[in-house]
Amino acid sequence: MAIAYCGPPPLPADLATSFNLDPVLLIALVALGIGLRHHRTGLLAVAVLAIAFVSPLCALSSALFSARVVHHILLVAIAAPLLAVALPARRTDRMVLPFGVATVTLWAWHIPAAYDLALVNVGVYWAMQLTLLGSAVWFWRAVLARDRSPVDQLVFIVAAFAQMGLLGAILTFAATPLYAAHAVAPYAWGLSPLEDQALGGLIMWVPAGVPYAIAAVLVARRGWGRLTGVMA
User: Fold this and answer.
1) Does a structural domain hold residue 104?
2) What is the domain range of residue 17?
3) Is the pLDDT of residue 1 over 70?
4) Total domain count, the chain
5) Cα–Cα distance measured from residue 12 to residue 228, given in angstroms and rounded to the nearest whole number
6) How many CB atoms lie under 10 A from the CB of residue 143?
7) Stretch 14-25: mean pLDDT, rounded?
8) Contact indicator for 216, 140 with CB cutoff of 8 Å
9) What is the pLDDT of residue 232?
10) Helices (H), the chain
11) Is residue 219 part of a domain?
């Protein structure tokens, strides 16, 4: 199956040189970096996006579903909260709607037909990336608003990881491979398509929780600081 973006699935020997040097992408990242140059977390977010889209991870995600999972985690659980901190919400909105939109977006793009189409059509590919990132930034901006109750923040951070973990569990224990886009390429990497899919689900189920755990700790720490400040 032809891959429309990030190039064809690379062989292991070719991975180290499989950078994506799309000039439009590079210009967009540079422009974003210039726009966020005064925000350290914003620049970190740009660096994470560069890893996702410029580094060999981009090409590897054409070959392996598990690499695509890492790619998506970089977007929704690392780049998105960093952007949310750099671009905080101007007002406190309800969290239910952004949480629901981000959740539906993540699950919808893992429907096999939608996922496979995104890997063979440039327009659909970028629709996937931008909606995943955009909905995640919306969610994290709502959650990380400074006047938000720490309890509410913790509830939604845990809920966000729980829904991702549930999707990961479903993929981990699926009895058959679901994605035609990864029906052949994983064999070159010593994995069957089902093993690659299970690995991707496991990554989504367990290691993906680390960014959410860090966010929860920071929120709890800030909430404790507020409480001790009031008590003092």
Assistant:
1) yes
2) 12-231
3) no
4) 1
5) 53
6) 24
7) 96
8) no
9) 45
10) 23-35, 40-53, 56-63, 65-73, 80-86, 96-108, 112-118, 122-143, 150-172, 193-205, 209-231
11) yes
Tokens describing residue 121: 């059509």
Decide: 50 and 29 in contact? Cβ < 8 Å: yes
CA angle 36/37/40 to nearest 5° reads 85
Mean pLDDT, range 81-88, rounded to an integer: 95
**What is the sign of the dihedral through the CA atoms of 91, 39, 160 and 68?**
positive
Residue 1 lies in a domain: no
Maximum pairwise Cα distance, the chain: 64
User: First-to-last CA distance in the chain?
Assistant: 64
Query: Are 64 and 186 within 8 A, CB to CB?
Result: yes
List, as one string, the DSSP characters of 149-191. Answer: -HHHHHHHHHHHHHHHHHHHHHHHT-SS---GGGSSGGGGGT-
Closest CA to 110 of 76, 138, 82: 76
Q: What is the pLDDT of residue 229?
A: 52
**Cβ-contact 136, 162 below 8 angstroms:** no
Across the range 107-120, mean pLDDT stands at 96
**Residue 47 domain-assigned (yes or no):** yes
Give Cβ neighbours of residue 141 (< 8 Å, ≥ 6 apart): 84, 87, 88, 89, 98
pLDDT digits 0-9 by tens, 30-44: 999 999 999 999 999
Alpha carbon 112 to chain centroid distance?
Answer: 18
